[in-house]
Amino acid sequence: MQAVFDRIKESVLKTQVWKSIFRHDYEDSQRNRLLQVLDNIWLHLHPTKLPRHGAYLRFTWCMGGITFLLFLVTAVTGVLLMFYYRPTAEYAFADMKYLQFDVPFGMFLRNMHRWAAHGMVIAVWLHMFRVFLTGSYKPPREFNWVVGVILLTTTLLLSFTGYLLPWDQLSIWAVTVGTNMARATPLLGHEGPFGPELGMKPDNDVRFMLLGGTQVGPPTLLRFYVLHCIFLPLFLAVFIAVHFWRVRKDGGISGPL
Amino acid sequence: MENLKNILSNADNVPIVGLLFIMVFFVWLWWREASRTDKRIANGEWEQIRAEGQDKIHVWPYLTRNEFLCSLAIMILLTVWSVGLDAPLEEPANPSRTPNPSKAPWYFLGLQEMLVYFDPWIAGVVLPTIIIVGLMAIPYIDKNPKGNGYYTYQERKFAIITFLFGFLVLWLSLIILGTFLRGPGWNFFAPWELWDTHKVVAMVNVDLHEALGIRSKLGANIFGAIIVGAYFSLAFVYYFWKKDGELIKQLGVARYGVLAFLFLTMMALPIKMILRIFFNIKYIWVTPWFNV
To answer: Taking CB atoms and an 8 Å limit, are B70 and A57 in contact across chains?
Structure first.
């Protein structure tokens, strides 16, 4: 029996198809350990070797990786939710009910999206905390810390714009509270210092631009939807690319200099 | 206790309750690692620590294995969480029915809580901007070459204490205060108190100049400007006092200026909180255009 399996395995491994996909065998050798990383598009962002402490959870807390994983979860579940959700005041809430009661696994999908988003906020804070405590923002990694702060802010903005989309009492009032502060923006808000002096009114200031109206209404829903599903994720993806690339370019995981 | 139970069982508040325990764990973990390293440095094992940092291992399998297990654990946790707990969905949006209290999502409740102590233009716009810009500025202000790439406390006490104060004491405790202890009218409610929508809170707040007997508007304006100006000129006082000290020499004037501004701005929050909570002081500086 064993011989049969071995022969099948051997003949499969020798085929042109197999060889065109997998460039090396799986035997545990020095060379294969390096190729496993180098020849794989998903893994090649890693170096082939890293300092020992870089693989220790007690050093990295794995929080950067977890943040990225949770971002992928929100992206996948988010796209699936988009199939069932219409960002208009007439339908948005009804579509939430539709997800809850009619769509197979609809509620599970929504839960996963929401809890992954909350988890992402926590993970990104903890990642920043870890990077601070290990002093990893110090030269030569100063700029990557700045990119990290941009990513942190974008994560919060993504959570905030997503909060409005269910279009229930919770979301509309949370966003009302949040965006009310914009009317107090110095110079650019109609209740901010020197705003009225510059001609700011409720219907032409920075909050009006954000909401598409003088209060949170249907135009706000559409605006936040577009920001949440298109602009902010793309923005985040671009800076994630920069962030990861810089980790490598700045010398990989930090260690005692 | 009814309220506390309601808040705790609110699905959206699970992350903040979880965060409390997570933070305790990670602060403990940091402290364990840091004190271990500090002890070794004190024993003169620095060269050994450096050498250990150079020791390399293969990414495959040692790192990828941990990444895989981490992802697996997180996905399991997330699945269990999503099966067991439903995302909240309240009544349809109704612009004519304002809930009391209206709360932002938990990660913004620190900002909302700051509204008690500062006007919206400071709490909602200026301070968040300063927090973001201040965080970005950290690597360019902190010129301490030590503590790069390992956990330590002894080698960078000021940086770590300041960050812990800002992150744990200010940011997280404001979130906790806003989440658990604020009820209708954004009034303070102890966990065992009933959320009474009709709770009457006497408005006894006065502005600082009123408390000190200054009555004229112009006088108040000038007085406030002097107080705020004096507060921020503490930076100059410290500069000329410690001009030849190691810190200022290392930083230079520009970096010191930015650091002092950010530090004093951060400390203004707890100062204003104490003034507001214990002395019922509302504004420090009242002008026709803005109040501080």
So the answer is: yes
